[in-house]
Specification:
By secondary structure, the protein is mainly α. The chain contains seven helices and three strands.
Amino acid sequence: MHSSLTVAQYLLNKADPAEHPLTPMQIIKLVYLCHGWMLGLYRRPLIEDDVEAWRYGPVIRRLYSAVKHYRSQPIVKPLMHDSDVADKFDEDEKSVMDQVFEIYGEYTGIQLSKLTHAQGTPWSEIRSADDTGWEVIPNHLIEKHFRELAQRP
């Protein structure tokens, strides 16, 4: 398992800051999707951080804290001192992150937010049970959801 910051840095390295900068909302949702697909396809977590059910969808608190000062502006600086992180991941992890970036990388933060907190998602299961905020979304719910998505035709 990895820090959400390491996964975020991998995705930021894939994005061209001049042509395709990523905002905090985008990177938080993309890291969540990478984690979800890793659980759904390989039944193992990608990140060590908890995913929480915040008002506007799943949020990884550590990553949010690292990027919140950008607000809705693009993230322009590396999140880590050693920003060359590709060698920290195995081939399955890279494959999942590359595919998530390829499929969802062009989505806006708002589109990703709607996708990740739609009805029937792990977020909606937790938020409907307790709307006070910041409840952890258990990995078993995330895994179940993404496994079901993977089995759809």
